[in-house]
Amino acid sequence: MIFATVGTQLPFPRFVGALDAIAGRRGLRIVAQTCGDTDTRPHLDRHEHLDPVTFDRFVREASVIVGHAGIGSILSAGRAGKPIILYPRRASLGEHRNEHQLATVAALCDRPGIHIAHTDEELEALLTTPDLTPFQLEQSANRTALVDRLRAFIAA
């Protein structure tokens, strides 16, 4: 199963439409959190909004996460160790207030497990690629040392 999210603030019809078309052509099972998208999407398992427990369950069950370039989606994929495909919103197409999502993907494009699609064709190619590299959040040395000290203290 592929889990798609557009975030909780704005619909993203271009992205959701591309996912629906790809799912129809390729027979993919895509569960999508669509936030206000009102168009008919016959090939998606759509959910307008998801509570946090259900959202986390879909993240855990998914083979890959695909979403707008929102930090929450990226962190969710990293915590779960899932590959993430980012399809950024574009202010030039009226999808956001500025081009910060393009800046986000430019900053993250060389990170293992973060895959970028700027076009529907790139999105389809990534969605049909077997065994995409998973994204893992890095633990800082300071955080690891703190956790080790806390574990030692608790065990004492």
Question: What would you say about this model in short?
Answer:
It contains 6 helices and 6 strands, in the order βαββαβαβαβαα. The protein is an alpha/beta fold and 156 residues long.
Summary tags:
6 helices; alpha/beta; 156 residues; 14% strand; Rossmann fold; six-stranded parallel beta sheet; hexosyltransferase activity; Glucuronosyltransferase; single chain
Ranges with pLDDT <50 over ≥5 residues?
none
Strand proportion: 5-15%
The termini sit apart by 44 Å
Number of helices: 6
Organism: Sphingomonas sanguinis
GO molecular function, one term: hexosyltransferase activity
Domain Glycosyl transferase family 28 C-terminal: 52-128
Protein name: Glucuronosyltransferase
Detail the topology: elements first, then pairings.
Blueprint: E1 2-5, H1 13-26, E2 30-33, E3 44-47, H2 52-61, E4 64-67, H3 71-80, E5 84-86, H4 100-108, E6 114-116, H5 120-127, H6 141-155
Parallel strand pairs: 1-2, 1-4, 2-3, 4-5, 5-6
GO molecular function: hexosyltransferase activity
Keywords: Transferase
Pfam family, one: Glyco_tran_28_C
What does this structure look like?
The structure is a single chain. The model has no long low-confidence stretch (mean pLDDT 88). With 156 residues, the chain is of the alpha/beta class. It has a single domain (2-155), classed as Glycogen Phosphorylase B (Rossmann fold). 42% of the residues lie in helices and 14% in strands. It is globular. A six-stranded parallel beta sheet has the order 3-2-1-4-5-6, with helices on both faces. The chain has six helices and six strands, in the order E-H-E-E-H-E-H-E-H-E-H-H. The termini are far apart. InterPro entries: Glyco_trans_28_C. Pfam families: Glyco_tran_28_C. GO terms for molecular function: hexosyltransferase activity.
